[in-house]
Specification:
Strand order of the largest sheet: 1-3-4-5-2-6
Distance between the termini: 100 Å
Mean pLDDT: 85
Number of strands: 6
Shape: elongated
Order of helices and strands: HHHEHEHEHHEHEHEHHHHHHH
Radius of gyration: 27 Å
Number of helices: 16
Low-confidence stretches: 50-59, 176-182
Helix content: 40-55%
Structural class: alpha/beta
């Protein structure tokens, strides 16, 4: 063992860089083995397999770049194709085969961040997100140093099998190095991130999300084991998503009507395709503002919010709503609706 080995051990321990500490210790053990001291080499390797030795424990108040996220049990239903991909990711994590870096990309509101939270909830893990306000610094070169410190913080965590790391909106940190409009400093930040990502502890589970997939450096995209698009949904998918959302809120508010047929018709005729998160918010607020003595009131509110503010009987008929459904959406009695649609007078 050389003096530099001792210096490195102290440095890695001080910086809480568990992965580098272990690698240095393994090199020392190999050195002793090659020099004929197999007993000491085996003793060092035995210590390295002990979970209680050599791993600096991290406490939440010691975390400089990670913050714990709150995970609730409120689901964000997603299209079947995306749910299948998420199920595959959960299976891969449970198998512990070191497939550990995942990139979720798509438009805002498509459920990327919420999906990570649900994965953490299903796996029974705590979720820690990277605090970009602490990571990104205006001083030249400081952001790169912070990135190194961030990955040291992650790699040194004792309970990597009990947590998930989230880099939400990764594009805020790294951009395409080949973009001529990119600052030279950002190019160096990207290069540092690439290097640290390569040295990520294989036990760590890391998710990243981005709204600007095409702006990411291709080298970064290649580093992720799986890339999942959240833009894969059609109008029919949103109809099913809306039904699941209403069924969830019906458990909390039993008075609301669970008329799936009417709900899907409303969603089918919305003015523009909403994201799953936007649809969830519109349904939630429509229920929240509805008359608690009228379990169907939220249908009318939802139609006005996502379809047409000014409700027209003739248009509703053209859209395929029945007289009974038109009564629900307008508050006009069925008999009056029938007369109006026939051109009759009251």
């Amino acid at each position: 063992m050389k003096k530099m080995n001792v210096i490195n051990l102290i440095k890695y321990y001080t910086n809480k860089n568990d992965l580098a500490f272990r690698k240095e210790s393994e090199e020392i053990a190999k050195d002793f083995m090659n020099s004929g001291d197999s007993e000491l080499a085996e003793y060092i390797m035995a210590l390295l397999t002990n979970e209680n030795v050599w791993i600096p424990q991290l406490y939440e108040n010691e975390l400089a770049y990670l913050k714990k996220e709150t995970i609730n049990n409120e689901p964000l239903p997603l299209p079947e194709a995306i749910m299948n991909d998420i199920s595959s990711i959960i299976n891969a994590i449970c198998k512990n085969v070191f497939v550990n870096k995942f990139l979720f990309y798509g438009k805002p509101g498509t459920g990327k961040t919420e999906a990570v939270k649900q994965i953490a909830r299903i796996l029974g893990r705590s979720l820690y997100s990277v605090d970009f306000s602490a990571l990104i610094d205006s001083k030249l070169g400081q952001t790169q140093k912070n990135i190194v410190a961030l990955f040291n913080e992650i790699n040194s965590c004792k309970s990597l099998d009990k947590i998930i790391i989230l880099l939400d909106e990764l594009d805020a940190l790294v951009l395409d190095r080949t973009n001529s409009n990119d600052l030279r400093e950002m190019g160096r930040v990207t290069s540092t991130f690439l290097k640290e990502l390569d040295n990520l502890n294989p036990k760590a589970i890391l998710f990243a999300t981005t709204n600007l997939y095409n702006n990411l450096d291709k080298a970064i995209i290649r580093r992720f084991d799986a890339k999942i698009s959240f833009d894969r949904y059609k109008l029919e998918d949103l109809e099913d998503v809306g039904e699941q959302i209403v069924l969830y809120y019906a458990k909390k508010f039993p008075y609301i009507d669970k008329n799936s047929r009417l709900l899907k018709k409303i969603i089918h005729h919305m003015n523009s395709i909403l994201s799953p998160a936007e649809l969830k918010n519109e349904i939630k607020t429509s229920i929240a503002f509805s008359d608690p003595d009228d379990g169907q009131d939220y249908f009318k509110r939802l139609y006005k919010k996502i379809c047409y503010e000014n409700i027209d009987l003739k248009l509703l008929q053209e859209q395929g709503f029945t007289i009974r459904e038109i009564e629900v959406l307008t508050g006009v009695s069925k008999s009056k609706v029938a007369r109006e649609l026939k051109g009759g007078k009251e």
